[in-house]
């Protein structure tokens, strides 16, 4: 059984088509990243799953339950971290989680949940004084109540510092490992890339791609940028790098830095070429295609229906 099934899902708000014929299967036990720029329709999809919004057309189900007909059954088995969740300023963190425990009729240990999301120290403080990251951690604790079969997280990294983002990834992996399905939306590729088994890219209400990020990058033949810092740049070095198959450009930036654009799987060969000419490599840095470029590339694929050059994509296409 799939954890989430969307069939021809369409939602119009007046003239705005928020979702346009979206069909998607999220498998049980996978971490699925739902990616898209602002306004792409991510929150609307989540609202349909929870029956906060009724689709104009099409169907959605969670664990075999129709989201409209069986919304209570769905909500009972789903843990949600909604976008912009409203906390009660005068209630403490503990009271918030106690409320979630009571409404899910679970017997979870409130302190253990607060500990798990890293705010045990603030258990008895009122949420009104919480920072953005603390609020996000508290809402995550509420989402985890009742060992949900499906976790739906809308922009869960909002407000989290790098440590918080890492801890969130660890929690997401642990939830998947115990058998839960995790569906989370983001417009930050880096956040989902580290944990997601697969991603779907939504653009202007349409699902333009569903696959692993590696496969999406691979299918586009996208290039990586490699910045090398060496003890001294010379012509021999530049010639040697240019000679590597898959390298499309080499640019010298000052006396010690070379920027190379190459196929993703030729990075090792470039490093090999550097050592073969006897130049000492001091440091190197790689940068892969950004989410913006992935969006741009997928948009071009649709329009041109042919080969894609992500590097040639105009930056504004990805917004
Ligand atoms: N209640 C509503 N009434 C009118 N239009 C709406 C409503 N909810 C969403 N929309 C519109 O539907 C489109 C999709 O919005 P949605 O919030 O689903 O996008 P999103 O991908 O979650 O964006 P973000 O990353 O900014 O949260 C947008 O054009 C938005 O303005």
UniProtKB/TrEMBL annotation:
This is ABC transporter ATP-binding protein. Coiled coil: none annotated. Keywords: ATP-binding, Nucleotide-binding, Transport. Pfam families: ABC_tran. It comes from the Archaea. One of its GO terms (molecular function) is ATP hydrolysis activity. Residues 4-229 form the ABC transporter domain. Belongs to the ABC transporter superfamily. PROSITE patterns: ABC_TRANSPORTER_1, ABC_TRANSPORTER_2. The keyword Glycosyltransferase does not apply. SMART domains: AAA. The keyword ATP-binding applies. InterPro entries: AAA+_ATPase, ABC_transporter-like_ATP-bd, ABC_transporter-like_CS, P-loop_NTPase.
């Amino acid at each position: 059984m799939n954890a989430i099934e969307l069939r021809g899902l369409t939602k119009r708000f007046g003239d705005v088509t928020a979702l346009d014929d979206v069909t998607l299967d999220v498998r049980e036990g996978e971490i699925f990243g739902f990616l898209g720029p602002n306004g792409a329709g991510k929150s609307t999809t989540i609202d349909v799953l929870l029956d906060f919004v009724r689709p104009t057309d099409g169907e959605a189900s969670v664990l075999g339950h129709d989201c409209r007909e069986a919304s209570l059954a769905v909500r009972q088995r789903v843990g949600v971290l909604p976008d912009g969740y409203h906390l009660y300023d005068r209630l403490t963190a503990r009271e918030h989680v106690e409320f979630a425990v009571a409404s899910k009729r679970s017997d979870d240990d409130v302190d253990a949940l607060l500990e798990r999301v890293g705010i045990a120290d603030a258990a008895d403080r009122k949420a009104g004084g919480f920072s953005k990251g603390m609020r996000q951690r508290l809402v995550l604790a509420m989402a985890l109540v009742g060992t949900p079969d499906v976790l739906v997280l809308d922009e869960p990294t909002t407000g989290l510092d790098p440590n918080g983002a890492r801890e969130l990834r660890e929690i997401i992996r642990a939830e998947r490992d115990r058998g839960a399905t995790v569906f989370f939306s983001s417009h930050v590729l880096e956040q989902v890339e580290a944990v997601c088994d697969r991603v779907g890219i939504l653009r202007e209400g349409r699902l333009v791609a569903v696959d692993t990020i590696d496969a999406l990058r691979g299918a586009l033949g996208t290039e990586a940028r490699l910045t090398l810092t060496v003890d001294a740049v010379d012509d021999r070095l530049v010639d040697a790098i240019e000679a590597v198959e898959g390298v499309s450009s080499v640019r010298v930036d000052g006396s010690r830095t070379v920027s190379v654009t190459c196929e993703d799987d030729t990075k090792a060969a470039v490093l090999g070429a550097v050592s073969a000419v006897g130049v000492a490599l001091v440091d190197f840095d790689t940068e892969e295609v950004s989410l913006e470029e992935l969006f741009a590339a997928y948009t071009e694929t649709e329009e041109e229906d042919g080969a894609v050059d992500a590097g040639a994509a105009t930056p504004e296409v990805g917004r």
